[in-house]
Amino acid sequence: MTRREPKAPGFSHGDDVSDEDQRTPEPGISRARSETSQDAGPRRPPVAPRRAQTIEAHGDSRTDYWSWLRDSDNPEVLAHLRAENAYADAELARLDTLRAELFEEIRSRIAETDVSAPTRYGPWWYYDRTEEGLDYPIHCRVPASGSTGSPDASDSRPRLGEEPAGGPAWPGEVVVLDENLLAEGHNYLDVGTMAISPDHSLLAYGVDHSGEEHFTIHVRDLLAGADLADVLEDTSYGLAWSVDSQTLFYTRTDSANRPFQLWRHSLGEASHSDVMVMEEPDERFHMGVGTTKDGAFVVVMLGSKITSEVWLIDASSPHSPPRLVCQRRQGVEYSLEHHSGTLLVLTNDQAPNFRLMAAPVGSSGQHESWTELIAERPEVRLEGFDVFVDALLCAERFDANPRIVLYRLEGDDPFRDPLPPGEMIEVPEDPSSCYPGWNPEISSPVVRFEYSSLATPRTVYELDRRTGVVEVLKRQRVLGDYDPSAYVTERLWVPASGEVMVPVSVVRRRDVILDGSAPCLLYGYGAYEISIDPVFSSLRLSLLDRGFVFAIAHVRGGGELGRRWYEDGKLLAKPHSFEDFVAVARHLVEIGYTSPDRLAARGGSAGGLLMGAVANMAPELFRAIVAEVPFVDCLNTMLDPSLPLTVIEWEEWGNPAADRAVYETMKTYAPYENVRPDRYPDLYVTAGLGDPRVGYFEPAKWVQKLRAANPDNRVIFKVEMDAGHAGPSGRYEAWRDEARVMAFLLDALGAGADRPGS
Question: Is 725 one of the catalytic residues?
Answer without folding.
Answer: yes
